[in-house]
């Protein structure tokens, strides 16, 4: 899973243009948690392996579920939806090349609705990254 997340991060940070996900959020995109004093809006993404299958021909299929959540203040209320729209155009259907894998395909699986919590709100999209690799036996 680490190789898939490394390839995903490389793809994300390559989009530094203000009309791309990473650039739009001012590079405030973090894996698992953001520093406590980070200015909103920001995005936190987290991942979990949901499927690990090995076939008879030594092919492995790894499915990693990644959730991207954009947080912002009530006064803004525009960054989340726009940021996730930029993310969709940047990674949905994109084929990553993680080290040790033949390929890994990013597929949008669910789009979230805004959720309000006090003075802040968030919105999340969930992707599956399906990685294929051939393992060697000794």
Quick recap:
This protein is an alpha+beta fold. The chain contains three helices and seven strands, in the order ααβββαββββ. It has helices at 2-13, 21-24, 79-91, and strands at residues 29-31, 42-54, 59-73, 95-96, 103-111, 115-117, 120-134.
Can you describe this structure?
- The structure is a single chain.
- This protein is α+β, with helices and mostly antiparallel strands and 138 residues long.
- It has one domain: 2-Layer Sandwich (STM4215-like), CATH 3.30.2000.10.
- It is built from 3 helices and 7 strands.
- The protein has helices at 2-13, 21-24, 79-91; strands at 29-31, 42-54, 59-73, 95-96, 103-111, 115-117, 120-134.
- A hairpin with a 2-residue loop joins strand 6 (115-117) and strand 7 (120-134).
- The longest helix is centred in the middle third of the chain and has 13 residues, at 79-91.
What's the structural blueprint in terms of helices and strands?
Elements: H1 2-13, H2 21-24, E1 29-31, E2 42-54, E3 59-73, H3 79-91, E4 95-96, E5 103-111, E6 115-117, E7 120-134
Parallel strand pairs: 1-2
Antiparallel strand pairs: 2-3, 3-7, 4-5, 5-7, 6-7
């Amino acid at each position: 899973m680490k190789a898939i997340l490394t390839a995903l991060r490389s793809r994300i940070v390559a989009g530094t243009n203000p009309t791309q996900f990473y650039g739009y959020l001012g590079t405030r995109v973090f894996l698992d948690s953001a520093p406590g004093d980070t200015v909103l809006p920001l995005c936190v993404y987290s991942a979990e392996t949901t499927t690990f299958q090995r076939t008879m021909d030594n092919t492995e299929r790894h499915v990693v579920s990644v959730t991207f959540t954009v947080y912002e203040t009530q006064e803004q209320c525009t960054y989340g939806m726009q940021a996730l729209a930029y993310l969709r155009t940047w990674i949905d259907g994109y084929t990553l090349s993680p080290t040790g894998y033949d390929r890994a395909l990013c597929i949008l699986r669910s789009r979230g609705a805004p959720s309000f919590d006090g003075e802040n709100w968030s919105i999340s999209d969930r992707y599956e990254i399906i990685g294929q690799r051939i393992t060697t036996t000794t």
